[in-house]
Amino acid sequence: MLYFGCPMKRRFRPAVILLISLLIAIFSAAVACTAKHPGSALSTTAAYFLQVTPTPPVEEDRSVVGSTDGIVAMGGVIALIVLIPIFLRWKAWAPTD
Questions:
Q1: How far is CA 96 from CA 88, 90, 91, 93, in A?
Q2: Structural Rg of the chain based on CA atoms
Q3: In Å, what is the CA distance from 51 to each residue of 34, 46, 48, 54, 80?
Q4: What is the C-alpha separation between 61 and 33, in angstroms, rounded?
Q5: pTM, two decimal places
Q6: Buried b vs exposed e over 52-83: b needs ≥16 C-beta within 10 Å?
Q7: Cα(57)–Cα(76) distance, rounded to whole angstroms?
Q8: Per-residue pLDDT reduced to its tens digit, 62-73
Q9: To 5 degrees, how large is the angle CA 14–CA 20–CA 22?
């Protein structure tokens, strides 16, 4: 039985990193590139399942420009969630002299 010692460990990590990088490159290339179906002008097979739907009528926008009431209220709730436990246990965290 042959024992190669430390050189095996020095080669294993770079080989694993290279293999993972190669797999990521192959999968990203497979996702980015699609093959055209013969006899079709469409570039993907998913286009066969697309259906043309009528455009819905335009509805009047009910939002008010510049309104941040909901954002301010949510920020207050988050601040309370963080600050209440701090104020309740400040004595436990304070340094004792």
A1: 17, 12, 9, 9
A2: 30
A3: 21, 11, 8, 10, 48
A4: 39
A5: 0.31
A6: eeeeeeeeeeeeeeeeeeeeeeeeeeeeeeee
A7: 37
A8: 666 677 778 888
A9: 100
